[in-house]
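Sharing a chain and its predicted structure for anyone who wants a worked example. Both blocks are below, sequence first, tokens second.
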Amino acid sequence: MSVLRNVFLAAANNRGLQRFVQRYGFRLGAARFVAGESLDAAVPVLRRLNESGLLTNTTLLGEGVHDEAETQIVVAAYRELLDRIRAEHLRTNVALKLTHLGLAIDEELAFRNVAELAAHAATTANFVRIDMEESPHVEATLRIYRRLRESGHENVGAVLQSYLYRTEDDLAALLPLAPNLRLVKGAYLEPPEIAYPEKKDVDAAYVRLLEAQLTGGGFTAIATHDETLIEHAIAFTRVHEIPNERFQFQMLYGVRPRLQLDLVRRGYAVLVATPYGPDWYRYLMRRLAERPANVLFLLRNLIRG
């Protein structure tokens, strides 16, 4: 399965395949994982999830922007999104990628843009999660997160990836900030020189990071669909008397919805990451890389189409 995963992760950057897949739009099954191609389409999905007892975050899909003027369009779209969340009374926060805000152009540009959005989010009583991207962007992303916190932005969080060897040191350096961190396994194609190539090692690192984060203070977003890891987290929080307010489970829209609702019934907060936007191709490829069931779902739609 690691070979299949690598194939789909490599396909995420294949322009020719992207044109083919996006030609058929949501017929291929992207609608299972993406709330719509517009904010108007996403709002009813976010409301429905909230009404079923789930928290949500949402992302305007996009990354790798190389035009400063385009980053201003993205900032404006996120400001509109934050205002719409407030107007619609949604229990939804925002997640974003720094390369969507200009990190590939200039780190200072990305900082200014995300700082503007964090400040605007504060006026709407909302929160901004900075997603983690490929390994070349990790150092700058963490620098920007630190700068935001040092500048007084308390309503921001970051993401750590357990498959990177460096992450345990990164977590130790961040813990004095009492950070709000989402812990994921990692969804990019990384070389074995910097990332664990075997799933068992990624999972073991996830457990170490999870336990260190839960006992280190701050807030922990446990982002996984792995029931073994989820049950380990639940048992660990009980043994160490960590209150439910200090953590939540986070999952992806369209992935394990029954598990999401089951955890809510058990009394745990569950947030569903529910992205939208026309630039959904790379996001879809990463979802297909994660689980064989997602690939079968796509193939069934192709056959029916």
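Comments welcome. The radius of gyration is 18 Å.
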